[in-house]
Amino acid sequence: MLNRTYTEMLKEKDLIFEIFQYARQLAAEIGRDQVYDFSLGNPSVPAPECVNQTITDLVSSMDPLALHGYSPGLGIPEVKADIVRDLNQRYGSSYSPANLLMTAGAAGALAHALRAVSNPGEEIITFAPCFSEYKPYVEGAGLKLTILPADTESFQINFQALTDSLNENVAAVLINSPNNPSGIVYSTDTVRRLASILEEKEKEYGHPIYLISDEPYRDILFKGVDGPYIANLYRNTLTCYSYSKSLSLPGERIGYLAVNPDCAMGDRIIELCPQISRTTGHNGAPALFQRTVALTAGQFADLPVYEENMELLYQTLTEYGYRCVKPGGTFYMFPRSLEPDSIAFCKYAREKYHLMLVPGDIFGCPGHFRIAYCVPTDRVKAALPIFKALAQDYAGC
Ligand SMILES: Cc1ncc(COP(=O)(O)O)c(C=O)c1O
Questions:
Q1: Contact 179, 191 (CB under 8 A)
Q2: Which of 65, 135, 166, 280 is 20 to 30 A (C-alpha) from 127?
Q3: Ligand 1: which atom is nearest the Cα of residue 176?
Protein backbone atom coordinates (compact mmCIF):
# COMPACT_ATOMS: atom_id res chain seq x y z
CA MET A 1 0.00 0.00 0.00
CA LEU A 2 1.22 3.48 -0.79
CA ASN A 3 2.32 5.66 2.09
CA ARG A 4 -0.57 7.76 3.40
CA THR A 5 1.53 10.69 4.63
CA TYR A 6 3.21 11.31 1.30
CA THR A 7 -0.02 10.70 -0.58
CA GLU A 8 -1.64 13.43 1.53
CA MET A 9 1.35 15.73 0.88
CA LEU A 10 0.75 15.39 -2.87
CA LYS A 11 -2.53 17.26 -2.34
CA GLU A 12 -0.72 20.31 -0.98
CA LYS A 13 0.07 22.63 -3.84
CA ASP A 14 3.64 23.84 -4.30
CA LEU A 15 2.57 27.35 -5.19
CA ILE A 16 6.07 28.69 -5.89
CA PHE A 17 6.75 25.94 -8.37
CA GLU A 18 3.33 26.36 -9.98
CA ILE A 19 3.96 30.08 -10.49
CA PHE A 20 7.42 29.36 -11.88
CA GLN A 21 6.00 26.73 -14.29
CA TYR A 22 3.29 29.15 -15.38
CA ALA A 23 5.97 31.79 -16.05
CA ARG A 24 8.01 29.34 -18.11
CA GLN A 25 5.03 28.33 -20.19
CA LEU A 26 3.97 31.92 -20.71
CA ALA A 27 7.52 32.90 -21.72
CA ALA A 28 7.52 30.15 -24.34
CA GLU A 29 4.26 31.55 -25.74
CA ILE A 30 4.78 35.32 -25.63
CA GLY A 31 8.55 35.75 -25.22
CA ARG A 32 10.81 35.90 -22.17
CA ASP A 33 11.03 39.67 -22.15
CA GLN A 34 7.24 39.92 -21.66
CA VAL A 35 7.35 37.91 -18.42
CA TYR A 36 8.66 39.34 -15.13
CA ASP A 37 9.52 36.33 -13.03
CA PHE A 38 10.36 36.99 -9.37
CA SER A 39 9.12 33.63 -8.09
CA LEU A 40 12.13 31.40 -7.45
CA GLY A 41 15.06 31.72 -5.05
CA ASN A 42 17.64 30.39 -7.49
CA PRO A 43 20.92 32.36 -7.60
CA SER A 44 21.23 34.53 -10.70
CA VAL A 45 25.02 34.83 -10.66
CA PRO A 46 27.33 31.93 -11.55
CA ALA A 47 29.70 30.23 -9.17
CA PRO A 48 33.01 32.12 -9.12
CA GLU A 49 35.79 31.01 -11.45
CA CYS A 50 37.82 29.66 -8.49
CA VAL A 51 35.18 26.91 -8.10
CA ASN A 52 35.66 25.69 -11.68
CA GLN A 53 39.42 25.93 -11.33
CA THR A 54 39.42 23.99 -8.05
CA ILE A 55 37.28 21.22 -9.51
CA THR A 56 39.57 20.97 -12.54
CA ASP A 57 42.65 20.85 -10.30
CA LEU A 58 41.14 18.22 -8.04
CA VAL A 59 40.06 16.01 -10.93
CA SER A 60 43.43 16.23 -12.64
CA SER A 61 45.61 15.87 -9.56
CA MET A 62 43.88 13.39 -7.24
CA ASP A 63 43.57 9.65 -7.41
CA PRO A 64 39.98 9.16 -8.67
CA LEU A 65 39.35 6.37 -6.18
CA ALA A 66 40.27 8.67 -3.31
CA LEU A 67 38.48 11.68 -4.80
CA HIS A 68 35.18 9.99 -5.58
CA GLY A 69 35.16 7.38 -2.84
CA TYR A 70 32.74 7.37 0.12
CA SER A 71 33.57 10.15 2.52
CA PRO A 72 33.58 9.50 6.28
CA GLY A 73 30.06 9.93 7.72
CA LEU A 74 30.89 13.18 9.48
CA GLY A 75 32.82 14.61 6.55
CA ILE A 76 36.42 14.63 5.29
CA PRO A 77 38.68 15.63 8.23
CA GLU A 78 40.95 18.02 6.30
CA VAL A 79 37.89 19.70 4.75
CA LYS A 80 36.41 20.29 8.19
CA ALA A 81 39.76 21.65 9.43
CA ASP A 82 39.82 24.23 6.60
CA ILE A 83 36.21 25.25 7.19
CA VAL A 84 36.55 25.73 10.95
CA ARG A 85 39.76 27.73 10.44
CA ASP A 86 37.85 30.10 8.16
CA LEU A 87 34.86 30.28 10.55
CA ASN A 88 37.03 30.97 13.58
CA GLN A 89 38.94 33.68 11.73
CA ARG A 90 35.79 35.42 10.60
CA TYR A 91 33.71 35.19 13.75
CA GLY A 92 36.22 34.75 16.56
CA SER A 93 34.62 31.40 17.39
CA SER A 94 36.51 28.34 18.60
CA TYR A 95 35.13 25.44 16.58
CA SER A 96 37.22 22.35 16.11
CA PRO A 97 36.67 19.89 13.23
CA ALA A 98 34.90 17.63 15.74
CA ASN A 99 32.07 20.19 15.99
CA LEU A 100 31.23 19.93 12.29
CA LEU A 101 29.11 17.61 10.17
CA MET A 102 29.31 18.05 6.39
CA THR A 103 25.84 17.85 4.85
CA ALA A 104 23.85 17.98 1.64
CA GLY A 105 23.02 21.70 1.85
CA ALA A 106 21.19 23.49 4.64
CA ALA A 107 18.31 21.04 4.21
CA GLY A 108 20.63 18.17 5.16
CA ALA A 109 21.97 20.13 8.13
CA LEU A 110 18.44 20.92 9.34
CA ALA A 111 17.40 17.27 9.01
CA HIS A 112 20.22 16.28 11.38
CA ALA A 113 19.85 19.21 13.79
CA LEU A 114 16.11 18.71 14.23
CA ARG A 115 16.41 14.99 14.87
CA ALA A 116 19.48 15.14 17.11
CA VAL A 117 17.95 17.40 19.77
CA SER A 118 14.36 16.21 19.93
CA ASN A 119 12.12 13.22 20.33
CA PRO A 120 8.96 12.54 18.31
CA GLY A 121 5.99 14.55 19.51
CA GLU A 122 8.07 17.44 20.83
CA GLU A 123 7.61 20.97 19.61
CA ILE A 124 9.71 23.25 17.42
CA ILE A 125 8.91 26.95 17.49
CA THR A 126 9.61 29.25 14.58
CA PHE A 127 8.51 32.75 13.53
CA ALA A 128 6.47 33.98 10.60
CA PRO A 129 7.30 34.76 7.92
CA CYS A 130 9.26 31.54 7.48
CA PHE A 131 10.55 29.27 4.73
CA SER A 132 7.63 27.15 3.50
CA GLU A 133 9.67 23.94 3.69
CA TYR A 134 9.94 24.11 7.48
CA LYS A 135 6.63 22.28 7.78
CA PRO A 136 7.79 19.13 5.92
CA TYR A 137 11.26 19.35 7.51
CA VAL A 138 9.84 19.44 11.05
CA GLU A 139 6.82 17.20 10.63
CA GLY A 140 8.93 14.70 8.68
CA ALA A 141 11.01 14.31 11.85
CA GLY A 142 7.85 13.46 13.81
CA LEU A 143 7.76 16.87 15.49
CA LYS A 144 5.13 19.56 15.88
CA LEU A 145 5.84 22.92 14.22
CA THR A 146 4.43 26.06 15.83
CA ILE A 147 4.71 29.18 13.68
CA LEU A 148 4.39 32.31 15.79
CA PRO A 149 2.81 35.42 14.26
CA ALA A 150 5.11 38.02 12.72
CA ASP A 151 5.97 41.42 14.06
CA THR A 152 5.02 42.98 10.74
CA GLU A 153 6.40 46.42 11.66
CA SER A 154 10.00 45.19 11.76
CA PHE A 155 10.01 41.42 11.07
CA GLN A 156 12.31 41.08 14.08
CA ILE A 157 11.15 38.53 16.67
CA ASN A 158 7.67 38.78 18.17
CA PHE A 159 8.84 38.35 21.77
CA GLN A 160 5.40 38.52 23.32
CA ALA A 161 4.26 35.58 21.20
CA LEU A 162 7.46 33.72 22.09
CA THR A 163 7.13 34.11 25.87
CA ASP A 164 3.45 33.16 25.66
CA SER A 165 4.25 30.00 23.70
CA LEU A 166 7.37 28.55 25.29
CA ASN A 167 6.63 25.42 27.30
CA GLU A 168 8.44 22.33 28.57
CA ASN A 169 7.69 20.39 25.40
CA VAL A 170 9.69 22.79 23.20
CA ALA A 171 12.89 21.07 22.07
CA ALA A 172 14.21 23.88 19.91
CA VAL A 173 13.55 27.28 18.42
CA LEU A 174 14.25 27.49 14.70
CA ILE A 175 15.31 30.84 13.26
CA ASN A 176 16.44 32.04 9.86
CA SER A 177 18.43 35.25 9.56
CA PRO A 178 18.96 36.76 6.99
CA ASN A 179 15.41 35.69 6.37
CA ASN A 180 13.61 34.08 3.50
CA PRO A 181 11.13 35.67 2.62
CA SER A 182 11.48 39.06 4.40
CA GLY A 183 15.20 39.71 3.80
CA ILE A 184 15.38 40.93 7.40
CA VAL A 185 18.47 40.34 9.52
CA TYR A 186 18.10 39.81 13.27
CA SER A 187 20.02 42.53 15.09
CA THR A 188 22.42 41.95 17.98
CA ASP A 189 19.73 43.28 20.34
CA THR A 190 17.17 40.84 18.97
CA VAL A 191 19.47 37.83 19.31
CA ARG A 192 20.60 38.86 22.82
CA ARG A 193 17.01 39.23 23.93
CA LEU A 194 16.10 35.86 22.42
CA ALA A 195 19.10 34.28 24.17
CA SER A 196 18.15 35.71 27.54
CA ILE A 197 14.54 34.45 27.27
CA LEU A 198 15.71 30.98 26.27
CA GLU A 199 18.32 30.86 29.04
CA GLU A 200 15.71 31.79 31.62
CA LYS A 201 13.31 29.13 30.35
CA GLU A 202 16.08 26.50 30.28
CA LYS A 203 16.62 27.13 33.99
CA GLU A 204 12.91 26.95 34.71
CA TYR A 205 12.40 23.69 32.76
CA GLY A 206 15.72 22.11 33.71
CA HIS A 207 16.67 21.14 30.16
CA PRO A 208 18.31 22.84 27.18
CA ILE A 209 16.26 24.63 24.58
CA TYR A 210 18.36 24.46 21.45
CA LEU A 211 18.51 27.24 18.91
CA ILE A 212 18.64 25.89 15.37
CA SER A 213 19.95 28.75 13.28
CA ASP A 214 19.29 28.25 9.58
CA GLU A 215 21.84 30.44 7.78
CA PRO A 216 22.01 29.75 4.04
CA TYR A 217 22.00 33.54 3.40
CA ARG A 218 24.58 34.45 6.06
CA ASP A 219 27.01 35.78 3.47
CA ILE A 220 24.42 37.85 1.61
CA LEU A 221 24.49 40.63 4.19
CA PHE A 222 24.17 44.20 2.94
CA LYS A 223 26.58 47.03 3.75
CA GLY A 224 26.42 48.43 7.28
CA VAL A 225 23.79 45.95 8.51
CA ASP A 226 24.11 44.65 12.08
CA GLY A 227 24.13 40.87 11.53
CA PRO A 228 25.81 39.09 14.45
CA TYR A 229 27.14 35.55 14.26
CA ILE A 230 24.27 34.01 16.19
CA ALA A 231 26.14 31.10 17.81
CA ASN A 232 28.40 33.64 19.54
CA LEU A 233 25.39 34.94 21.47
CA TYR A 234 23.69 31.72 22.59
CA ARG A 235 25.63 28.69 23.70
CA ASN A 236 23.11 25.99 22.72
CA THR A 237 23.18 26.93 19.04
CA LEU A 238 23.29 24.54 16.09
CA THR A 239 24.19 26.45 12.93
CA CYS A 240 22.99 25.16 9.56
CA TYR A 241 24.93 26.60 6.64
CA SER A 242 24.86 26.06 2.91
CA TYR A 243 26.98 27.02 -0.08
CA SER A 244 23.87 27.03 -2.30
CA LYS A 245 23.56 30.83 -2.30
CA SER A 246 27.00 32.12 -1.27
CA LEU A 247 28.84 30.14 -3.97
CA SER A 248 25.80 29.68 -6.25
CA LEU A 249 25.94 25.90 -5.95
CA PRO A 250 22.35 24.88 -5.06
CA GLY A 251 22.40 21.79 -7.26
CA GLU A 252 25.59 20.41 -5.75
CA ARG A 253 24.04 19.92 -2.29
CA ILE A 254 26.78 21.03 0.03
CA GLY A 255 26.70 22.64 3.46
CA TYR A 256 27.38 21.85 7.09
CA LEU A 257 26.00 21.66 10.58
CA ALA A 258 28.22 23.39 13.16
CA VAL A 259 27.54 22.64 16.82
CA ASN A 260 28.71 25.41 19.11
CA PRO A 261 31.74 24.10 21.09
CA ASP A 262 30.02 25.11 24.38
CA CYS A 263 26.67 23.57 23.46
CA ALA A 264 25.05 21.29 26.03
CA MET A 265 25.82 17.68 25.04
CA GLY A 266 27.46 19.01 21.86
CA ASP A 267 29.75 15.97 21.51
CA ARG A 268 26.79 13.64 21.80
CA ILE A 269 24.85 15.64 19.19
CA ILE A 270 27.65 15.11 16.66
CA GLU A 271 27.98 11.47 17.72
CA LEU A 272 24.30 10.91 16.90
CA CYS A 273 24.55 12.44 13.42
CA PRO A 274 25.90 9.40 11.53
CA GLN A 275 23.04 7.39 13.04
CA ILE A 276 20.58 10.00 11.77
CA SER A 277 22.26 9.80 8.35
CA ARG A 278 21.65 6.05 8.35
CA THR A 279 17.93 6.50 8.90
CA THR A 280 17.45 9.39 6.47
CA GLY A 281 19.58 8.01 3.62
CA HIS A 282 21.87 11.05 3.80
CA ASN A 283 25.09 9.03 4.13
CA GLY A 284 27.76 11.67 3.66
CA ALA A 285 27.93 14.92 1.74
CA PRO A 286 29.24 14.87 -1.88
CA ALA A 287 33.00 14.31 -1.66
CA LEU A 288 34.11 16.41 -4.64
CA PHE A 289 32.18 19.42 -3.35
CA GLN A 290 33.38 19.00 0.22
CA ARG A 291 36.90 19.45 -1.10
CA THR A 292 35.88 22.25 -3.42
CA VAL A 293 34.25 24.39 -0.73
CA ALA A 294 37.16 23.83 1.64
CA LEU A 295 39.69 24.96 -0.94
CA THR A 296 37.60 28.01 -1.87
CA ALA A 297 36.78 29.01 1.74
CA GLY A 298 36.27 32.76 1.99
CA GLN A 299 35.40 33.11 -1.73
CA PHE A 300 31.95 34.07 -2.94
CA ALA A 301 29.86 34.47 -6.06
CA ASP A 302 29.20 38.09 -7.12
CA LEU A 303 26.88 38.73 -4.15
CA PRO A 304 26.87 42.59 -4.23
CA VAL A 305 24.63 42.46 -7.29
CA TYR A 306 21.77 41.40 -4.99
CA GLU A 307 22.20 44.56 -2.94
CA GLU A 308 22.13 46.62 -6.13
CA ASN A 309 18.84 44.95 -7.14
CA MET A 310 17.41 45.46 -3.66
CA GLU A 311 18.24 49.19 -3.58
CA LEU A 312 16.70 49.69 -7.00
CA LEU A 313 13.49 47.88 -6.07
CA TYR A 314 13.21 49.25 -2.55
CA GLN A 315 13.73 52.91 -3.52
CA THR A 316 11.40 52.73 -6.51
CA LEU A 317 8.64 50.61 -4.99
CA THR A 318 8.39 52.75 -1.86
CA GLU A 319 8.13 55.80 -4.14
CA TYR A 320 5.23 54.09 -5.93
CA GLY A 321 3.45 53.61 -2.60
CA TYR A 322 4.37 50.03 -1.67
CA ARG A 323 5.10 49.55 2.04
CA CYS A 324 8.09 47.39 2.83
CA VAL A 325 10.59 46.80 5.63
CA LYS A 326 14.01 47.36 4.05
CA PRO A 327 15.90 44.08 3.65
CA GLY A 328 19.32 43.73 5.28
CA GLY A 329 20.36 40.68 3.26
CA THR A 330 19.32 37.73 1.03
CA PHE A 331 17.75 38.29 -2.38
CA TYR A 332 14.16 38.63 -1.17
CA MET A 333 11.90 41.44 -0.13
CA PHE A 334 8.44 41.20 1.38
CA PRO A 335 6.19 44.23 0.81
CA ARG A 336 2.57 44.53 1.91
CA SER A 337 0.18 43.51 -0.83
CA LEU A 338 -2.04 46.28 -2.16
CA GLU A 339 -5.17 44.42 -1.15
CA PRO A 340 -5.60 42.36 2.03
CA ASP A 341 -5.92 39.10 0.08
CA SER A 342 -2.34 38.54 -1.09
CA ILE A 343 -3.29 35.45 -3.09
CA ALA A 344 -5.76 37.53 -5.11
CA PHE A 345 -3.19 40.32 -5.42
CA CYS A 346 -0.50 38.00 -6.81
CA LYS A 347 -3.02 36.39 -9.17
CA TYR A 348 -4.00 39.82 -10.50
CA ALA A 349 -0.34 40.81 -11.02
CA ARG A 350 0.33 37.50 -12.74
CA GLU A 351 -2.66 37.53 -15.06
CA LYS A 352 -2.78 41.19 -15.99
CA TYR A 353 0.93 42.06 -16.02
CA HIS A 354 2.75 38.71 -16.25
CA LEU A 355 4.48 39.70 -13.02
CA MET A 356 5.28 36.62 -10.91
CA LEU A 357 5.11 37.26 -7.17
CA VAL A 358 4.59 34.79 -4.32
CA PRO A 359 1.81 35.40 -1.77
CA GLY A 360 2.87 35.71 1.86
CA ASP A 361 0.32 33.09 2.89
CA ILE A 362 2.72 30.27 2.12
CA PHE A 363 5.26 31.82 4.51
CA GLY A 364 2.69 32.07 7.29
CA CYS A 365 2.23 35.81 6.74
CA PRO A 366 -0.76 36.76 4.57
CA GLY A 367 -1.19 40.33 3.37
CA HIS A 368 2.37 40.43 1.97
CA PHE A 369 4.13 39.13 -1.10
CA ARG A 370 7.66 37.94 -1.80
CA ILE A 371 9.84 39.33 -4.57
CA ALA A 372 12.81 37.05 -5.30
CA TYR A 373 15.13 39.57 -6.98
CA CYS A 374 17.81 37.04 -7.85
CA VAL A 375 17.39 38.01 -11.50
CA PRO A 376 19.63 40.06 -13.83
CA THR A 377 19.52 43.78 -12.95
CA ASP A 378 18.15 44.67 -16.40
CA ARG A 379 15.10 42.50 -15.61
CA VAL A 380 14.61 44.42 -12.36
CA LYS A 381 14.76 47.68 -14.32
CA ALA A 382 12.33 46.35 -16.95
CA ALA A 383 9.85 45.39 -14.21
CA LEU A 384 9.75 48.80 -12.51
CA PRO A 385 7.09 50.31 -14.85
CA ILE A 386 5.05 47.14 -14.34
CA PHE A 387 5.13 47.56 -10.55
CA LYS A 388 4.11 51.19 -11.13
CA ALA A 389 1.12 50.27 -13.30
CA LEU A 390 0.06 47.69 -10.71
CA ALA A 391 0.21 50.29 -7.93
CA GLN A 392 -1.79 52.74 -10.05
CA ASP A 393 -4.53 50.16 -10.58
CA TYR A 394 -4.95 49.87 -6.83
CA ALA A 395 -4.60 53.60 -6.19
CA GLY A 396 -7.61 54.06 -8.47
CA CYS A 397 -9.72 51.58 -6.47
C1 LIG B 1 15.56 29.57 4.58
C2 LIG B 1 16.08 28.39 3.84
N3 LIG B 1 16.50 27.34 4.54
C4 LIG B 1 16.99 26.24 3.93
C5 LIG B 1 17.07 26.17 2.55
C6 LIG B 1 17.61 24.94 1.92
O7 LIG B 1 18.90 25.23 1.46
P8 LIG B 1 19.74 24.17 0.60
O9 LIG B 1 19.18 24.21 -0.77
O10 LIG B 1 21.11 24.62 0.68
O11 LIG B 1 19.53 22.85 1.23
C12 LIG B 1 16.64 27.25 1.77
C13 LIG B 1 16.69 27.20 0.32
O14 LIG B 1 16.24 28.04 -0.40
C15 LIG B 1 16.13 28.40 2.44
O16 LIG B 1 15.70 29.48 1.76
A1: no
A2: 280
A3: 1
What counts of helices (H) and strands (E) characterise the chain?
14, 12
Domains of the chain with bracketed CATH: 4-47+302-395 (3.90.1150.10), 49-295 (3.40.640.10)
Measured in angstroms, how far is the CA atom of residue 216 from the centroid of ligand 1? 6
Q: Per the confidence metrics, is the pTM higher than 0.85?
A: yes
Q: Are 264 and 61 in contact (CB under 8 A)?
A: no
Q: What are the pLDDT digits (tens) for 337-390?
A: 999 999 999 999 999 999 999 999 999 999 999 999 999 999 999 999 999 999
Contact 258, 269 (CB under 8 A): no
Evaluate if residue 251 carries a pLDDT over 90: yes
Percent of the chain clearing pLDDT 70 (strictly above): 99
Q: What is the pLDDT of residues 163-216, one digit of tens each?
A: 999 999 999 999 999 999 999 999 999 999 999 999 999 999 999 999 999 999
Cα–Cα dist 118/142, whole Å? 9
Beta strand 123-127 with 36-37 is: unpaired
DSSP 244-278: TTTSS-GGG--EEEEE-TTSTTHHHHHHHHHHHHH
Beta strands 369-372; 358-359: pairing state? antiparallel
CB contact at 8 A, 334 and 369: yes
**Lateral strand order in the sheet of 332-333:** 332-333, 369-372, 358-359
For ligand 1, which residues put their CB under 6 angstroms from it? 41, 105-107, 131, 176, 180, 214, 216, 242, 244, 250, 255
Q: What's the gap in Å between 233 CA and the centre of ligand 1?
A: 23
pLDDT at 12 over 90: no
Lowest mean per-residue pLDDT among 3-12, 173-182, 227-236, 356-365:
3-12
Q: Are 334 and 361 in contact (CB under 8 A)?
A: no
Give the nearest ligand 1 atom to 254 CA: 10
Residue pair 334/357 in contact (Cβ under 8 Å)? The answer is no
Mutate to test the pocket of ligand 1, among 103, 130, 180 (most ligand atoms within 8 A of CB): 180
Query: What is the spatial distance between Cα 322 and Cα 380, in angstroms, rounded to a whole number?
Result: 16
